[in-house]
């Protein structure tokens, strides 16, 4: 009889998830250029427009997780992610509206961002693949994929400092998304990590969760590959 591999302990599993930070996109050359003030205005605006497409698809990804999750308590908490990005009505603030404010603060026309004319094929493909993953895979794997948020708060702090120090042509009104998101991302990541640790209890489930997080890291990296290549071709 073939022996089954025992599950990792909670501590071992958590450490394995954290170790995937080595694959996170904070180390991508594009981010290095962004954080040192090396992006041109066109490159910065292209990044904002392409990141918009990713941002606007996040509620669709989260809705897919809700659709696949049978646990009412999980759904009650997870739906807050959709409220955060979409807003609860047309009069309040929302993450998506704050991202559009960043675009206009950088001198872009709102309509040019909304019609997605600047979205690169590679960014669109990667983003759509992430939404598709959340739709077809078990909800625990899609939650695990979201754990790139574990690594994001420090990146956003660095990005916010870079915007203030190196890109003074971007109006300070565009900083609000990052000002607000740092704390929210930390809270969301803590919740998602607990869900994964509590619900992925077999070795197979743990391996699938780790693969999902590595998959997400690869998608994010490929988005920056597309942006970096576009900048070099332009230059």
From TrEMBL:
Ring cyclization and eight-electron oxidation of 3a-(2-amino-2-carboxyethyl)-4,5-dioxo-4,5,6,7,8,9-hexahydroquinoline-7,9-dicarboxylic-acid to PQQ. HAMAP family: PQQ_syn_PqqC. GO terms for molecular function: pyrroloquinoline-quinone synthase activity. It catalyses: 6-(2-amino-2-carboxyethyl)-7,8-dioxo-1,2,3,4,7,8-hexahydroquinoline-2,4-dicarboxylate + 3 O2 = pyrroloquinoline quinone + 2 H2O2 + 2 H2O + H(+). It is an enzyme of class 1 (oxidoreductase). Its EC number is 1.3.3.11. Residues 16-225 form the Thiaminase-2/PQQC domain. Belongs to the PqqC family. GO terms for biological process: pyrroloquinoline quinone biosynthetic process. Pathway: Cofactor biosynthesis; pyrroloquinoline quinone biosynthesis; Cofactor biosynthesis; thiamine diphosphate biosynthesis. It comes from Streptomyces fodineus. Keywords: Oxidoreductase, PQQ biosynthesis. This is Pyrroloquinoline-quinone synthase.
């Amino acid at each position: 009889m073939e022996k089954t591999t025992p599950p990792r302990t909670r501590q071992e599993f958590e450490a394995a998830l954290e170790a995937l930070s080595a694959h996170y996109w904070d180390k991508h050359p594009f981010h290095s250029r962004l954080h040192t003030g090396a992006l041109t205005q066109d490159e910065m605006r292209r990044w904002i427009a392409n990141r918009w497409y990713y941002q606007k698809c996040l509620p669709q990804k989260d809705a897919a997780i809700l659709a696949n999750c049978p646990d009412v308590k999980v759904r009650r908490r997870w739906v807050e992610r959709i409220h955060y990005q979409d807003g609860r009505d047309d009069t309040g603030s929302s993450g998506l509206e704050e991202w559009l404010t960043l675009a206009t603060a950088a001198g872009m026309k709102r309509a040019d961002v909304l019609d997605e004319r600047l979205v690169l094929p590679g960014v669109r493909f990667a983003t759509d693949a992430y939404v598709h993953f959340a739709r077809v895979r078990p909800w625990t794997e899609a939650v695990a994929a979201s754990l790139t948020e574990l690594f994001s708060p420090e990146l956003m702090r660095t990005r916010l400092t870079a915007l203030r120090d190196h890109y003074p042509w971007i109006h300070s009104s565009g900083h609000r998304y990052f000002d607000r998101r740092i704390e929210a991302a930390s809270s969301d990541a803590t919740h998602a990590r607990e869900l994964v640790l509590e619900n992925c209890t077999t070795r197979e489930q743990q391996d699938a969760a780790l693969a999902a997080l590595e998959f997400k890291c690869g998608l994010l990296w490929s988005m920056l590959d597309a942006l970096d290549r576009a900048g070099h071709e332009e230059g």
